[in-house]
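Thread: quick sanity check before group meeting

JM: Hey all, I'm pulling together slides for Thursday and realized we never actually wrote out the predicted structure for the chain we discussed last week. Dropping the sequence here so it's in one place. If anyone has concerns about the input, flag it before I start.
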Amino acid sequence: MNLHDFIFSNRKSHRLRRHILFWALFTVGFFLQSVVPSPKIISNALFSVVFFLPACVFFFYVSLVILLPAFLKRKKFNGLLLNLILLSFITLLINYIASSVFVINTCDCPSSLIPFSKKLGFAFINTSHAVTVGCLALGIKFLKNWYLRQKENYALTKQRLLKESQLKKANIYPSFLFRSLDKLYQKIISNSTDASTIILTLSDLLSHILYECKDEWVLLEKELLIVSELVNLEKVNEAGKWQIELTTSGSVANKYIPSLLLFSLLQRCLIEMDKGSIEANISKLKIDIYSDELFLIFTMSINMQLNIRSSVWSELLEETYQKLKLLYNNNFQFDYKISNNGLLLSLKMPLYDKVQENLIESDTEQKKIIYESA
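JM (edit): ok, ran it. Output follows.
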């Protein structure tokens, strides 16, 4: 059992341990605050615990078992306030009775000689303790439930976006295949010698996509391999229309990256570029790996009015941004600038080693705990 299980798990054994620990600490604190200078300092403090602690337990569990689900969870704050006042009044009566018994056992005198104000004062003081611990329990439980709902919403959102990402990944194949096969057809009918090269490159590329990129995370070297093959394919497909240069540096050994992240970003950019009547274009893709980070710079110089479709480009790049945010939270930098002269895109993101596999497993376990606690 780890700390997260102890705090958030809804299993009976964990809940029992939490309550035992809470009341053990609270009893010690209640005993210490009851220690006041008197001839029977220890016995009086013990009597205080015996007679006044039950009212705290009563207020605590009525708040959690009745008021929390009936009013706080449903956000009926007026009803919650009225019922807290009523519960406080009932607790005050209980503590007044307990005060009478407490005074008899600690003052060695008849209860009739004890002023009403003194017994009521004891009742008020101990009722304030009960109200404090009850409201504290409601606050903690409310915040805990809110935190678990946020985690559950995040898990559900992540699951939904990952499914959408997988669907979009599937959409890569039709658009990519149609465009590549169309280029291949044009090469064949023109008796170009590049047709055989396109067939071999396309075959290798599809083999990597279909059989080696099924998992959510893949080795960086595999991702860079299919990016390189895509660049080589485009060089043949668009020979004379535009130039694309790819440069990489750094060690890629045992580094993991989201599957097809770079490939899908590049191929979408290329498809969008192909929609325009571009007379001359030079594109450069530079990827540098430093330690556990990847730096990507993609530039396009285009002789066209790119701002005509600037909204399309923004939407296209926004999809990549949302996927990065989903997988890395805010631990990345993704910026792009669109102008009449072209596109400048920069990306900085962390790379994981084999430990990432354990992170994925722990994330799955965490989702399991969240659903158990909900």
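AS: nice. Confidence is low (pLDDT under 50) at residues 355-374. The radius of gyration is 34 Å.
JM: adding both to the slides.
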